[in-house]
Batch of 4 targets.
Target 1
Amino acid sequence: MNDRMDQIRSTRAPTLREDQIEILGRYGRTRKTEVGDVLFRAGDTQNDFIVILEGEVGVVDDFAGEARTIGVFLAGRFLGELNMLTGQAMYLSAVVREGGEVLAIPRKRLKEVVTEEPNLSDVILKAFLARRSYMMRTGLGLRIIGSRHSGDATRLREFAARNRLPHVWIEIEEDPEAEALLGRFGAKPSETPVTVWQGKDVLKNPTNLEFARTTGLEVDAPLERTYDLVVVGAGPAGLGASVYGASEGLSTLALESIALGGQAGTSSRIENYPGFPAGLSGFELASRILVQADKFGARTAVPQEAVGLRREDGHYHIELSDGGEVAARSVIAASGARYRRLEVPGLGRFEGVSVHYAATEAEALRCEGEEVAVVGGGNSAGQAALFLAGRTRRVYLLIRGEDLGKSMSRYLVD
Ligand SMILES: Cc1cc2nc3c(=O)[nH]c(=O)nc-3n(C[C@H](O)[C@H](O)[C@H](O)COP(=O)(O)OP(=O)(O)OC[C@H]3O[C@@H](n4cnc5c(N)ncnc54)[C@H](O)[C@@H]3O)c2cc1C
């Protein structure tokens, strides 16, 4: 058990070898540091990737002046997060605890390291992914305050979860401190869901786009030019198409309305993706494809929803939900599957509150200890029923037909 914990820790905070630091030295510059220097701040989008050569640096979650040290990094270790490769904002700050020297590599050059230095690429990517998982488990930076019965609170939590945005969920029915916290940020329970980013940016029931802008999740790409290829949807299919398009020299843009990685991003383990015999999480798969797409110059814009398409002056014009548009010589729609909705009157009122279209950890938490009905007889219904059976009081499986075996695999039926 201890060995496993050590292994996880060393993946998250590996110590670089001399030869690896020497290679990294070609991509950046060294500089002296003093106690109290801030190497990057939560919310930064232009910060450098830092390798500590001498001294000590603390990584801090600073929520409304309540600084909490998440980790301490010594010489030979590096700081940074996956967002440095995706163009998104940092979630934590780094403050020098003991002066010394660091190697600072600009984000743009870090991308070159990750795509051109096989010796370092995996170490950096694996650490970034492990750090994100740790942050998701720990809950940092962002607070979402609301009611478990609110559809908008569910929407925001899902948006955060799909984007792997570390956050702390505070339920007003359960947490006795919730009301005081709301008061501190000038909000009332009736104005929930409320999001508080880094202890200062307060949003009352924001749209996904407002939420993404504030938390630095938004990835912008120039929309005023004409692309050779616009791909709608950045799940595995869309990201794959972007890699192929860009690697053939086409100027390529992927538009994604919710989260890079699509549905696959929510899968905890994908075992059947060719080339990864040991399996990998959907988030890791998406992150790897994203780095590859970026290497070939593909751009991504998220959250950006395509709502219309017209042909004009020999080009396609993709209309966006915020009123803007982008022009392209060709378009690939890789918008994935939509869940079929139940034809039940008034269903809309319950969606996101007590009717869900997935059975992931987020839904399990909401149903814990209750009775649940799973509607459907396919494999996903079978998997959902088995998963929820371990977490809820009772699961009913409702099917239209007579025979479960018609559409469900034998091992699930058994
Ligand atoms: C929990 C879970 C576990 C899974 N496990 C596995 C597994 O182990 N093995 C396996 O093979 N498959 C698995 N799957 C299925 C796999 O994830 C899907 O087959 C795969 O994601 C489909 O890829 P896609 O790119 O076609 O679509 P999606 O992943 O659905 O991506 C489509 C994307 O398009 C975006 N989009 C849609 N409309 C618009 C629009 N108008 N404008 C902009 N963007 C838009 C969506 O937001 C979405 O991100 C799993 C799925 C789930 C949910």
Note: Residues 118-138 form the longest helix (21 residues).
Target 2
Amino acid sequence: MSLPASGRVAVFDRPNAPFRIAEYPLRPPAPGEVLVRVAMSTICRSDIHSYQGHRPSPCPGLLGHEIIGRIEALGPGIERDMRGEPLAPGDRVTWSEYFVPGPHYLGDALDLPQKTPGVDKYGHLSADALPHHHGGFAEYCYILPRSWILRLPDELSDEEATPINCGVATMIAATEAANLRIGDTVVVQGLGLLGLYGAAIARARGASRVIGLDTQAPRRARAADFGVDVAIDPGAPDPHAALESVRTACGSLGADAVLEVCGDSAVIPAGLDLLRIGGSYVLAGVVNPSSMVSLDANLVLRKCLTLCGVHNYHPRHLAQALDFVVAYRRRYPFHALVDGRYPLDRVGDAMADAAARRVLRAAIVP
Ligand SMILES: [Zn+2]
């Protein structure tokens, strides 16, 4: 198959500046690389943070890390996905949102390959950085060496498959970190895409009661479809009264686990307060630097709480995320979570709609 000489990418030159289409050269994939034609890339909340300048993002910025694509060409030395399934041009694949520079003690001995020093992420680099095509808002993307790749089964729609490598895998990691058990009561702070997948995965892990918190009425209205028993507005009629109704919903012992997926550190004290003795609090949404919070550390000590953070998920979570979506796609309407489609030259509109929460997950379809 002959490659085109170049491919289009949507870039921005400074935070909040209009997107423009740029064209960069394509070359055959190097050893260990796979060149894919992007099938779909969804806008994650962290893309919005990067675009709005809430965290460092080199420019001209090429965003998009929730991506799937069809293999255009395989580089030398790569023939199979992370589970040993053969890969061929035309196959539709997902891959880890990050790639690491090489082996390291953190991965080999401490089982945290996702935190290898020098780890980088798709959709986080300047488009000027070689090989230029390393983000989702583009026609093509190179899957770089030391990424974890999975071939996607045909039965999954693009809408079901695209969030697997960020939103779904992150919630597999978060619910694993929460050590959920059969019969647990789980509180989910934030009912965006992460929260809805988190609720469904908590159910699959055995939770008998899931309580969801979100200030947005449309999000609460959708929550029941994803396994949330009770959806509560944490601000109404006032935060104190709302907290009391959540407490009542949790039962007399309190929640076994609370998952933070709203990105607002101000919710952390209330989340800790809702936990039972020995409960677990997992941070998965506060991805911005300087997410400061003031809390009573004595509460953590006295209640013997576990407080953990989840970032970049382990490669096994990617495989589990795919298996979860395949197994539960008839039970939960995952396809409906990606509710806006935009061509590459309308990334700006997609970003605006996503930022204003007019859509839950905007998809770029180049
Ligand atoms: Zn993401």
Note: The chain has a mean pLDDT of 97.
Target 3
Amino acid sequence: MNYKFQIIGGAKEIGGNMFLAMGPHENIVIDAGIQFPHDDAFGVNYLIPNFKLLPKITRLIITHGHEDHIGAVAHLKRLFPEIIIYAPRFAKCLAQKKLERASLVATINEYTDGDQIDLPDFFIEPVRVNHSIPDTFGLVLLPKNTDTALFYVSDFKYDEQSNFDPPIDLKKLSNYAKTKTQRILLADSTNILSRTTKTESETSLCESFESIFSENFPRIILTTFSSNIERIKNIADCARKQNRKAYVYGGSMFKYVNCAVESGLLQADDIKFLESKDQLGEPCVVIVSGCQGDFKGTFRRIAAGYDALFKPRVDDCFILSSRSIPGNEKKISMTLNKIAEYGCTIITSQERHVHVSGHAGKEDLKKVYHAFNPTQLIPIHGEHYFLNKHQLFSFDELPSSKAKVQVNFDSFEIKNEELIFSKHVPTDDERPILIHGNDIEIERDAIKQKRKIAENGIVLVNFRSEIVSTKNYALPISIQTLGLPAHLNSYHQHLVKNVINVLKSTHKASNDEIQAEVNSAVKTAINGILGYKPVVVTHIL
Ligand SMILES: [Zn+2]
């Protein structure tokens, strides 16, 4: 039997994770993630892989609840309405909320440790892993009637001290090393450049948290990733030990903590939701969302002084228990500077041990390498140079394995137990789709236009068609500018004259052609004044 696999997203960028597995009877995907745009994205909220290029997909298996793995679930469901979805309990709750928000109905099949998902072409065995969100799984795909095991583990770390999740079941992985002759490992490259070789345990943060919480701050406002339920629980426990009340606050915090309670990961009395000012007792720790400094986020709102419940005070302590996702550095430092204006204490992971990664360091990778003993490694979850570095690292650590860098849309096949790789020539069509507003697709040309308008302003020219037909140039010509300097107002008559000159000299018959000539003349005239050409839109009424 032949099987074909293709990485659709997540191999040459961070985010948009998706892996396609095609068997003789059906095509399934693992994860449907989004990618976050760079900060000059002109209103683009996120990007999704171009699903329109996929063959018919019958099943989606979700590994965990991070946005770069489930964020596109509603888009995929809309394209393949019959799709059957599988997810661990916490990710199921989050994905279900996404589908509800998009007015879509789907039953999500839950899986956990020890389950075997028996599909027409594959047995899938979930392997629980540690990560920065609970209930995360790697998936072993066993293509039926082959001697192959493929372990897809895009996000993981090895945390022996976690009081939340057990570490990866290495014994289970080593069983495949004994029973399967071909073992393909697709593994996390996120931290391959890091000098920290062993990713530290979530539990290791408790000592610093307790130490800071024992200090004399009446209010501690801490921001972290809302999905990191283990950290939120640890912080609440540390706060209680230091006789502080602990609250969560912010839309995203409420969403994730609610799902954690629904999924049984937290007890309702583990942490309180801060919903009114009167509720807030001191001393306290308030865990808020928005650790990336998003303009609409709670952390930013508090820092800017316009939150309904919090105004920063000089005796407040703010803790940034997170790292900046590349591209967000500026927004975060702007937020911290806002807080600094109030004279508050600020603690970041650069000074104190208040953040650990959720991804594998080199030592964590080695543990999986040695247990699974892959015959073939394919680095995933990273930018292109991360994948190359991961490949080089594996040459030292896994001399018996081959390692191959595959980027999005490259593929490999299992044909009579032989592995055949195909390189793919990228095309523009494969670029991720841009999503903005109410989860609506926006074309790249529209974004280009937004950028032009934002950078160069817009000029609206309006006049009646009689000007052309009667040659009465005394009729009014309206020229309105938006996003352009007031300096241009003194050139209003000059611009009107330019329009009249076009109308006098034009030999064009259609309105469209005349409009194009006017646009061009006004652009050139303004370029002569300002040194750049705005977008000009002419309407003949
Ligand atoms: Zn993740």
Note: The two ends are 67 Å apart (CA to CA).
Target 4
Amino acid sequence: MPELPEVETVARDLQRRVAGAVITDVDVRWDRTVRHPEPPERFAAELRGARIQRVGRRAKSVLLHLADGRVMTVALRMTGALIVAPSGTPDDPYARVVFHLADGRQLRFRDVRKFGRIGLWEGGGLHRRAAAPGAASRAVRESRDPYRVGDVFARHGPEPLARSFTAGRFGARLRGRTGRLKSLLLDQSLLAGVGNIYADEALWRARLHPLRTANSLSEAEVRRLHRAVRAVLRQGIANRGSSISDYVGADGEPGDNAEQLAVYRRTGEPCLRCGREIARIVIGQRSTHFCPRCQREPLLWEGPQA
Ligand SMILES: [Zn+2]
């Protein structure tokens, strides 16, 4: 499943390729891909003539900012991809939504397993302070209409690569939490964009066992984890993402980061730091990979350690 670096790569590719493009028509071929507005005919009608001003990202969604202020969100989920197809490219049977552009190209939302979702929203509310950890998305649940795009992300935590996301702020969000580090890193209300791959990589880099609880971390360990999370995400972006299963960039090419991963899906292979075999355990139904020597197992009586 694409995480922050993969979605960021798609957004940057699209910024280069479709910023300024005008949407002339939209084919919705799988109705459930369109989350908002309904029905799909309305979604298509509201996009006709719209100009894509710029492309960005929030959490694990691509954001297409339209010139009139509205924002289209694309959640890639398991197998979704946004592909720019030059005019004359053969049709793709897995294209669930096709945006026809005025210059003859198509922006295709390709999604084999059909879990991806696209929405079109009024602008605004994206830059308000992130929700408190564990907060519910009240606006969306009460189905206020029209939603603003900010409401879609109301229960998401801060962006880990934002300048404002300091170690102090991370520590404040972790304070008093009794959850396991692996589960907390996957909690999108604590931190947006981290998934299974980058959670395992960050914990290995920070030399923290995935079963450690947040409230057992010393200040030095919080700083280490904060640095590690940002480093593995930046490395993922630099390598255009990790193609573990279906992920491809907007050029249809896989990313290069899978070969750079230290622990994820390297069970039984030597730790790059100490040579010990990488182990795999399951935490909260998620495969978790770590080095049993570098990432020492927490003991019940153990307090914070430097
Ligand atoms: Zn090791």
Note: The first strand starts at residue 23 and ends at 28.
